[in-house]
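Marked as duplicate of an earlier ticket. Keeping the data here for the record.
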Amino acid sequence: MRWMVFALSLCLGASTLMPAQDHGATGVRKGTHASEPAVKEEQEILAAVRARLDALAKRDFAAWASFVSDDMIAPLGGTKQGLLRERGSWPAEVKYFYGPLEDVKVKVFGDTAIVVYHSKQFNEIGGQTTYEHRWQLETHMRRGKKWMLVAVGDGIIPPEPIPAKVDPAIYDAYVGQYEWSPTLISTITREGDELREEFGNMGKSELLPENERTFFVKGEAAGGDSSRITFVKDAVGRVTHYLYHEFGGTDRIVKKIK
């Protein structure tokens, strides 16, 4: 949920470096007033990212390697040499490519740069195409006149459910205040046929039903938050608490206090 911002973790997977086919980056450092040299650097870095991913999409491993440092590190012990061996061993009909890169951000710190984006990563094998939606975090360093990839990590973005059709009358039982701590309270309200939650000073979010007891906030998976809350009742049907399910984590019991 939007209100659960105390920690952000990336689940690092093995399919970190996959080639690009179509890039939909809309710019770098939106809303900032960077100097002209800084903007030029950011554009150069993003061009290097695109060229590297395009090279892998075309199975041009020599071109891909020219943008990757020999000492590059990746999740699960991945290395430049290991990735070259792996990709080179696959049949030519195996295709990897990205959808448009979204929410692209570039930040430069001297000769080091951080690039963050998310995208659907497609895998076409035997006429079937599957994909995973992932965040990707890359570290680049300037080596001479070229920006080289030196480290990379990624995190999967789980698919978002389709809201279920439920009777809004069930929302009345969920209305109330829920205590995370004595000074951190979640307030659940019903507004017509909508269930909403207000958490601290972060405004209200609509809770959409996955089923009659479990709810989520639309559009938050891409932001790294694919959590759910599940309301729990006692033997006589009164809501006693909700369970906060954070993707990849353990459940938290949040007691209803009012």
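See parent ticket for discussion. Confidence is low (pLDDT under 50) at residues 2-32.
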